[in-house]
Amino acid sequence: MRFSTFLYSVKQGMKNIGRNKMFSLASIATMAACIFLFGIFFSVVTNFKTMVKTAEEGVAVTVFFEKGIEQDKIDEIGKEIKKRPEVAKYDFVSADEAWKDFQKEYFKGNKEAAEGFEEDNPLANSSHYEIYLNDVSMQKALVTYLKGLDGVREVHQSEVAANTLSDLNSLIGYISAGIILILIAVAVFLISNTIRTGISVRREEIAIMKLIGATDYFVRAPFIVEGVMIGLIGSVLPLILLYFVYSSVITYVSEKFVFLSSMLNFLPVGQVFRVLVPVALLLGVGIGFLGSRVTTKRHLNV
């Protein structure tokens, strides 16, 4: 495309928006509302998934060894565990470390009771590996593998926690896909109506352009530009609003509900918008392009 043709298409596309002010404003408003809702949903889901991920990191599979096992064999089991794709990290906890942790937890302020076991560690056979997973949904496969390893006496797992977190992740995914599809469908419908109205208004002008030899691309381009501009404007405006809303909400919650700060660790605004801005802009422009492209192909007989 020549630069002059590109400028003409942009100019005509902007004029089309001006000619159909009411439909254009309605489309921009609808697009803005869709992107705003998408942004809110994205922010909530991103923070929730981060919280779920944090909870997942605390879910561990514990592997206990057979009585009298040699350290070399324990190290060999550790190497086998390290090879597994499910494993994010694993820690070895010796019997002495396990006993110290037990004392801190259950003998607080009662050293005399703990001293009674000084010469006899009641957790002498409790050395173990604590294994943390990349994804809790992989826990079942890992546990099955660990139970089959030579030298492993027992494997403890947090089955209820893993299933709950796994179900939450699946639910978030389904809800996200459903809402995004609904928002896209509504926005495409409104933009299509706007473009169709523009085609109706300029039908005679388009016919004359075809009679004097205008190409199909030359005729369609301004309407494509119109749809893209509506999508772009409808994306930028809600992003600006969302930035201030998100910043205000996390500041308000952290100041007014201090007791929730330990449970609700909101992501910084920069971290959320580093992903949200390009996604929302691409979504808006893509919807605008798709809506105008489909409409011109269906209703513009050139």
UniProtKB/TrEMBL annotation:
It is a multi-pass membrane protein. Gene3D superfamilies: 3.30.70.3040. It holds the Pfam family FtsX_ECD. Its main location: membrane. Residues 59-155 form the FtsX extracellular domain. Belongs to the ABC-4 integral membrane protein family. FtsX subfamily. Part of the ABC transporter FtsEX involved in asymmetric cellular division facilitating the initiation of sporulation. This is Cell division protein FtsX. It comes from Maccoyibacter intestinihominis. The lineage of its organism: Bacteria, Bacillati, Bacillota, Clostridia, Lachnospirales.
